[in-house]
Amino acid sequence: MAEVRAEMVANVWKVVVKEGDTVSDGDTLVILESMKMEIPVITEDDGVVRQLKVNEGDVIQEGDLIAVIE
Amino acid sequence: MLTETLGPVLVANRGEIARRIIRTVKRMGLRAIAVHSEADADLPFVREADEAVLIGPANPAQSYLDAGKVLEAARATGARAVHPGYGFLAENAAFARAVVEAGLVWIGPAPEAIDRMGDKINARNLMEDAGVPVAAGTREPVTDLELAQKAALDIGYPVMVKTAGGGGGIGMSVAHDEEALAKAYEQAARAAARFAAAAAEGGEGDALAGPAILLERYIERARHVEVQILGLPDGTVVALGERDCSVQRRHQKVVEESPSPGITPELRERMLAAAVRAGEAVGYLGAGTVECLVDADKQDFVFLEMNTRLQVEHPVTELVTGLDLVELQLRVAAGEQPEVRPEVRGHAFEFRVYAEDPKRFFPGPGKITAWTEPAGEGVRVDSGYEEGNTVTPFYDPLMAKLCVHGETRGQALERAREAIAGFTVEGPKNNLPFCAELLDEAEFASGDYDTGLVGRMRGGRA
């Protein structure tokens, strides 16, 4: 199981995957936006998206849980 | 009209540029009115204005980009002129028109000039017709990948792919082959769609709508050199020297200097003359910037785009000419014909202090727990924040501009080194360590660098 957490304060601009999706290393899970920059959040693991904790438009803080990959 | 009758002046912007404009407005004896979002209520520009109006929530589409709210604030406060700064509504011709229709003075060029230059394809064609050199590229909007592929073959790889609207390097990328082109095209198309959506949300869908994309021949070892122009009421255009903006990450400027160490006096003369022609071709009034790409090896240049507003890096020009560009903007907008005989003295740098990590340049907003600005001979700091403020993720990462002037480039660099060491920012991530690193970089120190410098410093990752 791998937790994907936010590296910075940001807005969730786009949610690319949904719970139950199969993903592999390098896939984009969500796209954050901070300070006019798009920041893709990428999984470093192969697996299934078990939990997805953010919605488009959310403001998330550094360290917040974005997704759990299993 | 006399300048005294311009006030109160409403400043439709935020952060360092709002603060900088307010300073000159007040020095000229005029009232300064700020508008701000909820997120910016505690920033210095709000306090330093004579009056401040809350216009909406943090989301720029509902505050700084909402033309209706800005105009309503102007009406409610009795403002007689609007200064847009840079970004936000500054290059929005529909907004400029609405300001004029409301009976206010627009501190910028005529809306028609903004229109003509705002679309990069239009601008490029217009410049070519006016005899200003342009890079090989598309004269018509590229609207699908297949057209892009055809155009790229005609132009020859590598190509630069960008959106016709928008700016700030967003959606721009280089493609060296067909496979990379597909990615670059997709990225530009996505950026174009976002510009269009943001414009529609701000209630002026016409200005930036349409997925128009532009391809241009990419110059590998290029310097980004731009000419500051000032259009006067009698129709003449003056060039106020150039700025070299080749230190870039993600196609966005980090450090600028003037004069450019990478062009010969002969090339400078040609570029300044071309910039004047460019300004005259669109009947330009006020401060504007003609951006060019210089082929460092061939000592030749092409037109890139024209920015119809005050530029972030304008202090570099102010330091070497002794002029106050905001004052000149106001006087020209009031119909005055200031006598401007620019003489460049010494050398100046601007270092953009961004809230981002100094290695990967990723945003790092946060609360400022310590903030000490450097001071000293030849040092100027234009900042938007102070201790206790919070840098939020809603706006661009520029916290301050550290500017230095010296009699020579060497002296300016020495002053920069001391000033960077004397600048303390704690809380948000910041790129001051990168600025210090840059000063130790032989390429930068020598002056013989190009737009690939930061990428090389970071192993091709910037």
UniProtKB/TrEMBL annotation, chain A:
InterPro entries: Biotin_Carboxyl_Carrier/Decarb, Biotin_lipoyl, Single_hybrid_motif
UniProt keyword S-adenosyl-L-methionine present: no
Entry coiled-coil feature ranges: none
Keywords recorded for this protein, A-Z: Biotin
Signal sequence, start to end: none
One Pfam family named in its UniProt record: Biotin_lipoyl
Residue span(s) of domain Lipoyl-binding: 1-70
NCBIfam families, per database record: PRK05889.1 (NF004547)
Protein name per UniProt: Biotin carboxyl carrier protein
Biological source species: Nonomuraea roseoviolacea subsp. carminata
From TrEMBL, chain B:
Record has ATP-binding as a keyword: yes
Top-level division of the source organism's lineage: Bacteria
UniProt keyword Nucleotide-binding, yes or no: yes
Domain Biotin carboxylation: 5-459
Residue stretches spanning the membrane: none
Molecular function GO terms recorded: acetyl-CoA carboxylase activity; biotin carboxylase activity
PROSITE patterns in UniProt: ATP_GRASP, BC, CPSASE_2
Keywords in alphabetical order: ATP-binding, Biotin, Ligase, Nucleotide-binding
EC number of the protein: 6.3.4.14
Sequence ranges assigned to domain ATP-grasp in this UniProt record: 124-334
Pfam families: Biotin_carb_C, Biotin_carb_N, CPSase_L_D2
Name of the protein: biotin carboxylase
